[in-house]
Amino acid sequence: MTSLHLRLQTLAFAAGVAAMFVSVNVLVGWEANIMWLTNLSPRFITMKPLTAVCFLLSGASLSLLIRSSRSTPRSRVAQALALLVVFIGLATLVEFSTGVHWPVENLLFAGALHATGLPDPGRLSFASAIAFTLLGLALFFLDFETRRGVRPAQYFALCVSDIALLHLLAYLFDFEDLYRTFRGNSMAIHTAGLFLVLGLGAFVARPNRGDRKSTRLNSSH
Length: 221
Known about the structure:
Blueprint: H1 3-32, H2 35-39, H3 49-66, H4 73-98, H5 110-115, H6 126-140, H7 152-172, H8 176-179, E1 180-181, E2 185-186, H9 189-203, H10 212-220
Antiparallel strand pairs: 1-2
Helix pairs in contact: 1-3, 1-9, 3-4, 3-6, 3-9, 4-6, 6-7, 6-9, 7-9
């Protein structure tokens, strides 16, 4: 593995650690009623507690995968965390598509959530549910490669980064129709930021592996 590969893996590990650090601080903000930890600014919406939990799981999964090889106990724990993220994302999508309500999402800091006056105050945003599903799949399949050398995790990770970038641009240009969906159920700005960080982190987590076709093309030039 070259020094560039090692640097990219270090960046991926740092992305996981950063996600865990931010998510823990958001949870502390909900517990201690420190609003600037949950929404960064009164102008912005808050990151939901369940969103912070999913980022904590995702960051831990990515960090463990960087520090472990394939089919080790540590990697299996990382994959289990990734599957839990996928489950939460899919469960939220089921809520949006069927109208069912899962009470579990409102258990964390229930008093603070209901004080916001929002419908379904603990529910992930629709875009966040999609992004967490894709991110969890990227982490779960991080070491999976087809016979042709295609790594699905890279495509999942890029989709997560694209979703994050669109929402960050929406905040930058104050385009509310993009980051506010389904009755004001929105993606927070630091949620979008963490999706971008983790999406890019998952993409570069295995820098010495990838599409063999592109590798052959690069080597022929």
